[in-house]
Amino acid sequence: MAGEFWLSDAQWAAIEPLLPVNQAGAHRVDDRRVLSGIIHVLKAGCRWQGCPAAYDPSTTIYNRFNRWARRGLWQRMFKALVALDASDIQLIDSTTAKAHRSAAGGKGGRRFKPSGDRVAGARPRSMRSRTVEGASSPSS
């Protein structure tokens, strides 16, 4: 996979000192590869299992993302990247979410709204049917 790293060498040099070292456990995989896998998942919007194998196992990528988030490492990394070149505009995400064409309307369907005349106490424009008022049916 050519160009598998999402960060330039200068960006990586700014972030690398912030990453934890000498962690206990299994053999530690390359942090730059794992970070690129995390960026790929977040940028592509795919599931962690959908991350390409070139970035190492998806469980490693997911676990590292969570550990770094609990330690507050992401905020420090973002600050280091912004400090790298503060004269530029830094954009983290530019995704958009399309909404259904009726999403801007109110909730629910049509509501009964009495006209202004009725609210003001004016007499109704229609009259009740005489057959409904007090008339008995011929069968009773």
Write the layout of secondary structure elements.
Layout: H1 9-15, H2 31-44, H3 58-70, H4 73-84, H5 116-119
Helix pairs in contact: 1-4, 2-3
Summarize the structure.
With 140 residues, the protein is mainly α.
Description of the molecule:
The chain has helices at 9-15, 31-44, 58-70, 73-84, 116-119. It has five helices and no strands. The protein is elongated, with a radius of gyration of 32 Å. The N and C termini lie far apart (88 Å). Helix content is 36%, strand content 0%. With 140 residues, it is an all-alpha fold.
Q: DSSP strand (E) fraction?
A: under 5%
Mean pLDDT, nearest integer? 76
For the terminal residues, how far apart are their CA atoms?
88 Å
* Helicity, as a percent range: 25-40%
Query: How many strands?
Result: 0
The secondary-structure class comes to: mainly alpha
Any idea what the shape is?
Answer: elongated
Radius of gyration: 32 Å
- What order do the helices and strands follow? HHHHH
Q: Quaternary state, please?
A: single chain
Show unreliable segments.
Answer: none
| Main pleated sheet | none
The helix tally amounts to 5
Keywords, please?
mainly alpha, 140 residues
